[in-house]
Amino acid sequence: MKIVARAKNLIYSCLMLACTNTLAQSTDQDVEEIIVVAHRLPVPSSKVASSVSVLTQEDIAEYGNLSIKDILRQTPGVASTSNGGMGATSSLRIRGEEGFRTLVLFDGLRLSDPSATQVATPIEHILSDGIGQVEILRGPQGLNFGADAGGIIALSSQTNEEGLNTSLEAQSGKFGTSQGNLNISGSNGSSDFSIFANQINTDGFNARSDDNILMDDDGYENSTIHLRAGTKLTDQIRIQAVHRNVEGDSEYDGCFLQTTIHDCESDYELEASRLSIDYNSETLTHSLGFSKTETDRKFFSADELGFSSAGELNRIEYIGSLNQFDNFSLIYGFDLEEEINGQMERDNEGYYLEFLSNFSTRLTISGGVRRDKNDDFGDHTSHRITSAYLFNWINTAIRFKASYGTGFRAPSLYEVHYNGGPWAFPPASNTQLKEETSEGYEYGFEFNTHDKVSGELIVFDQEIDDAIYFDLAGYSGYLQETGKSKSTGVEVNGSYILSDSLTFKANYTYNDTERPNGLQRLRRPEKLGNIGINYQNDSGKLRLNSFYRMSKNSIDERFGSLIGLDDFEVLDISISYKITPEIEIFARIENVLDEKYEEVIGYLTPRRGSYLGFRINI
Questions:
Q1: 500, exposed or middle or buried, with CB in 10 Å at 0-12, 13-18, 19+?
Q2: How far apart, in whole angstroms, are the C-alpha atoms of residue 274 and residue 227?
Q3: Distance in angstroms (rounded) separating the CA atoms of residues 576 and 169
Q4: Using CB atoms within 10 A of its CB, is residue 506 exposed (0-12), middle (13-18) or buried (19+)?
Q5: Rounded to an integer, what distance in angstroms lies between the CA atom of residue 52 and that of residue 60?
Q6: How many structural domains compose the chain?
Q7: In what order do the strands lie in the sheet with 131-138?
Q8: Per-residue pLDDT, 596
Q9: CATH number for the domain including 488?
Q10: What is the pTM of this model?
Q11: What pLDDT digit, counting tens, does each position of 420-471 carry?
Q12: Fewest CB within a 10 Å sphere: which of 215, 461, 464, 525?
């Protein structure tokens, strides 16, 4: 591969460098929440100026939803749309940006799918079980992760405890849904591993609103295996391997087989692996990773293969850090990526440098620059700068923060090929796509009082120049909007611990989106809100959780006509009880109020459903 040849000298230099210089870790990390996703290295949350949401394993269990997208959508600034039920094509938008501008990582492994129309993550095939923590980084983050990263979702597998641990979970419920998973993990201090296997089957429901005759169910099956293993070769050197396999089979309507819209199936397969080696000393860190992702998609009409696509991502990435100076750290790295879609391929090289400086215990500033070289779209420079200032009193802390970042996205291989192929026609066939560019800033504050009340208020403004979109009016192919597509809004997020038993959480996002022609951007709700109430009894055995979410003022498009989507409000309730420290039973009702609504015009969403299950920890 060309990418391997280009990387040889860089890898050799980095391995030599690993013997000479790293980042000293602050002792504050022992008592303070650590954020990894913001700078790709462990940093205390008080020194992170970007907006980050964190979900723990306990949070994920409280929500209880089978799909991770249904949990993520209940965090600040995140919206989701789906063409039906489980396994249906879905999109996760952070602050109104398209799902293909959101990068999803799992234990450092990129889940992007180059076989799709855009190099996006098929979020509908990621299940919530087996995830130990989620970090959501909002806003343009092209500096460390790649110029087209408009937001980051970093998933981590469940943490290891000393010894050998096994957990088993099963549940069943509405729409003929059954799910089971097995998680085995172990650690002896120097080595650790985690093996997670999950199987879901559901009959689904009739997802097409125009199917009022046959009204057949659109089912889904998913088999996922995720493995992670690591060991310390020395006190300073650790190697880790991650492998993920996913098979997802989705039934749907609309493949237009003669006179019927039924009997359609989409099969998705993912094989992804990553090998990394890390070096840590008191003044220097190095991390070198190799990853390979292969995806395969097949689409069937009445059991006949309609078309298929295959993709591959080969990636080499290095990140290092240096802290031989008081209150000043350097973070640097490179990534070389080969993207393949069928017979098409493209390489991208990226190099970046970032500084993180603590001028005092109150003031933190970071800034950096990135240079990308794309085979098809040339050289581009991206940058980011952040700052935070802390006011700390005896029982109250207030931290003001701000950040600004830029990026670009090259048109995908599929987008370029489609417009030049036999399926496109004017105006798309006459459109030569160029790269999108983006920039965004945010500012606001967060506070914590008496360790009971915490909150955050953020103002954000993001712009995409020359956004690429599919022609939904004439279906001619991919077009490009000349001008700026904007997302401007406010996020409010807070929690209140009323007592040892009762906690209240809420967030609200107002997002005013605008296309270059002045119209609202499609499928972006103007108002999103979430409220959660968590109760546990004195013994901690009984837990009761309720989650309310609302969405208002969203539009869609059909054949060139704009259509307003209905506002909706959804209430979910979950309850769990520990019979013994090892055995727990749980129940969940989703869409308690039986709300009927559409997130995408023409596609229904799940109505009220109940689920019952158990967990066993050994």
A1: exposed
A2: 11
A3: 13
A4: middle
A5: 16
A6: 1
A7: 52-56, 131-138, 151-157, 102-106, 109-110
A8: 95
A9: 2.40.170.20
A10: 0.90
A11: 999 999 999 999 999 998 889 999 999 999 779 999 999 999 999 999 999 9
A12: 215
Q: Whole-angstrom Cα distance, residue 535 to residue 542?
A: 8
Secondary structure element (H or E) that encloses residue 513, with its range? strand 502-514
Closest CA to 409 of 377, 442, 375, 440: 377
Cβ atoms 119, 48 nearer than 8 A: no
Question: How confident is the model over 9-19, as pLDDT tens digits?
Answer: 443 444 333 33
pLDDT digits (tens, 9 = 90+) for 299-348: 998 888 988 999 999 999 999 999 877 788 899 999 999 999 999 999 99
Which residue bears the tokens 């460390």?
A: 144
In one-letter notation, the amino acid at residue 280 is N
CA atoms within 13 A on the CB side of 49: 26
Quote the tokens at residue 40.
């790709």
Asked if the model's pLDDT at residue 521 lies above 90, the reply is: yes
Torsion of CA 369, 516, 94, 408, to 10 degrees: -30
Instruction: Please say whether the beta carbons of 296 and 285 come within 8 A.
Output: no
Distance, C-alpha 31 to centroid of its chain: 27
Higher pLDDT, 75 or 36: 75
Beta strands in 190-280 (DSSP E): 191-205, 218-232, 237-252, 264-280
Please state, in angstroms and rounded to a whole number, the distance separating the CA atoms of residues 478 and 409.
15
Q: What is the mean pLDDT of residues 41-62?
A: 86
- What is the extent of the structural domain holding 198? 2-617
For residue 545, what are its two tokens? 């959780």
609-612, long-range: CB within 8 Å, 24+ apart, which pairs?
609/173, 609/174, 609/175, 609/177, 610/173, 610/174, 611/64, 611/171, 611/172, 611/173, 611/174, 611/177, 611/587, 612/171, 612/172, 612/173, 612/585, 612/586, 612/587, 612/588
Structural Rg of the chain based on CA atoms: 24
| Distance (Å) of CA 186 to CA 106, 108, 274 | 19, 20, 20
The helix or strand, by DSSP H or E, that contains position 307, with its residue range, turns out to be: strand 304-325
